[in-house]
Amino acid sequence: MARWPKPEEGSWTEHFQLGTEPISYEDSISPEFYELEREAVFKRTWLNVGRVEQLPRTGSYFTKELVVARTSVIVVRDKEGGVRAFHNVCRHRGNKLVWNDYPQEETSGVCRQFVCKYHGWRYDLDGSLNFVQQEQEFFDLDKESFGLVPVHCEVWAGFIFVNLAKEPEQNLRDYLTPELARLESYPFEKLTERWYYRAEVKSNWKIYMDAFQEFYHAPVLHAKQTPPDWSMAAQQAGFEAPAYTLAGPHRLVSTAGIHPWTLPENMLKPMEILTRSGLFGQWDAPDLDYDQKAAGINPAGCDPWGLDSWQLFPNFTILVWGQSWYLTYHYWPTSHNTHIFEGTLYFVPATTARERVAHELAAASFKEYGLQDANTLEATQSMLESRVLERFPLNDQEVLCRHLHKVTADWVDEYKKQREHAEV
Amino acid sequence: MGQNTGSMLPPEFSDLEPFAAKWCLATESERFAERLASTMDEMQAFYDAVTPRADAAMTYCDQFPLDAMPEDATNLLHLLYSMIAVSFPVECWGQPRVPDSGAAYLELLSEPGP
What we know:
The structure holds two protein chains of two kinds. Chain A is of the alpha+beta class. Chain A contains ten helices and 17 strands. Chain A has helices spanning 12-15, 31-42, 172-181, 205-212, 218-221, 228-237, 270-275, 292-295, 353-385, 399-423, and strands spanning 47-51, 60-66, 71-77, 83-87, 108-110, 114-115, 122-123, 129-131, 150-156, 159-163, 193-201, 243-247, 250-256, 305-312, 316-321, 325-335, 338-347. Chain A has a seven-stranded antiparallel beta sheet with strand order 1-10-9-4-3-2-5. The N and C termini of chain A lie far apart (55 Å). The relative contact order of chain A is 0.16. Chain B has a domain at 15-93. The A-B interface holds A 193-199, 201-202, 224-225, 269-271, 274-275, 341, 343, 349-354, 356-357, 359-361, 363-364, 367-368, 370-372, 374-375, 378 and B 28, 32, 51, 54-55, 58-59, 61-62, 64, 66, 69, 73, 77, 80-81, 83-85, 87-88, 91-93, 98-112, 114.
């Protein structure tokens, strides 16, 4: 008997008309599909590269390596206070413009202008070329037409996105859809205490996205992280989400929560009781003072509410917790079977040692769970690549995995059609 | 430094001084590495000593603004972070590593102070 009502079609999967048949993971093991994905998805969609707090003042910049698109971008706060992005390449002889020590490593800082390490060409924060070493030696060099190559850059809710297309098919807001865009009324700007984790993972990027867009695994894979009484109850109950939402290529899972402080001690770890914190965050949550309904958060109206996890196509997750904090995931492909994972946690800055200790347990728990999740990915990737099996049954709590693979295939198909059309 | 010559922790917490040199570590990556390099006996002894004192330690640290803590109080706070780091092996795993985590890692490249 379902604890939460399902749509009238009997399941979320049928409600969203995603088909109920077993699915193929060929899209996660095929080098040919990956090459298509780079063009069809990563060079045509809006990609989140960071937040405005990373650019606190004029001249603040960071670089982002977009291996999947074979480029690097510079993101900078200009003199007017706007955010701009450029391909990270000098117009003279093609040297990477901004880097330190290792050209493939990301960097950040503050500057008045960008100076190429090679021959000293200088670019203003708006990308214009303003100095050429021994300019008189060149032939009819028009500095006006040798500015940095701009990348489309737009900001939503403090999140900075770039789009590598010559002309994006949609602006960022339309791309996000009204359903998702209203999340901007969540007070992200108040949560500026930042914890940034990174790892290289030996799996296709979609395999890790799948791991975090279903919670069917949670009572099993993470059973030993909780006291036996809790784990037993969780496994017997299984996992059911009260609400799933699709919005264009994006998707949401919302969960019911618990108030740990109301549980008997045998359901908690001693460290959770001692620090009043845990995986779900600090027990004594700050009041963020926002309108849940206006932000589209907790669509099933759960009380207590657990979390809302929005998967933004293609590779970005914003997960908002009931206990007044949020985290983001990024999955940056580096090949058909490897990617860089980034997890970033955001809290209202601690003002007391006790609050800071509570954040420490939440962050440490995040890592402990993440390490369990990460290792199944390599194990999965290697056996998918064996091609012993070709079809995999997904249940109704894995509906969002089904959606990601379908949306990716749709974008690739559309791109192929456009390309064929262009060739005719 | 604390008032006692050579001590790292405030005098009120001199009972934890034997653990200070090993566990007063300022970054998560140092604490995680120390956890992996320690035996279960070492971590259990530290856990058993520090957990009954943790509430008093937080109360002590809370006398100071978080951005202007004396060095010995900061050390005490770092000791509490290490208590959290060893709590996973002690309370869940019975071994330093997350079981089945093999080659997986997750590096914390930016973290808040103090």
